[in-house]
Amino acid sequence: MRSRQVFPAPRHLAIQIMRHRAFFMDVAAREAHHGDLGPRRSLPYHVVLLVANLLPVVLLAEPLGKEINYGIEVLNVPTTLGGIVIAVLVLSPEGLTSLQAARRNQLQRSVNLSLGSALSTIGLTIPCMICISLLDGIPLQLGLAPAEAILLVLTLFIAQMTFSGAPTNILLGGVHLVLFASFIVLMVHP
Q: What pTM, to 2 d.p., does this model score?
């Protein structure tokens, strides 16, 4: 018997968030809304809200980066820690919301939030950085040592196994934690 796939494939994502969104809401949320999904807003409305919410982040990025770099120099810690601090700051809203959804036993919402956050980083940030690099003529480097690159590929492989449709278990979660611990150890002692 094939288990239900938790990770939404890209072709199913449009179905989940647009036309048939009520099919993917949990029972309590559907009963609370009584089928009413709220007012539908136009694309320009959402674009204005997106820009208004991202503008403070963009304007505060450079001063925050200077503070983090200063702290790294003063504490004499590996420069990789700066990337980890930024990643924690960027991913913390979705991560905390995902944890709250998991506490309320809303697994589908929790997984969608976590994977959506990762996909937005991979699908938006990296292509934007590549475009800026090409336009400005500044070479772009991933900044990973060979051992860290191997850990990245291994993590992507294990993540693919985790979300391939088979039921997840504590063993796969433990493997992810061991990979993360290995990355931290390699960051501190290269």
A: 0.54
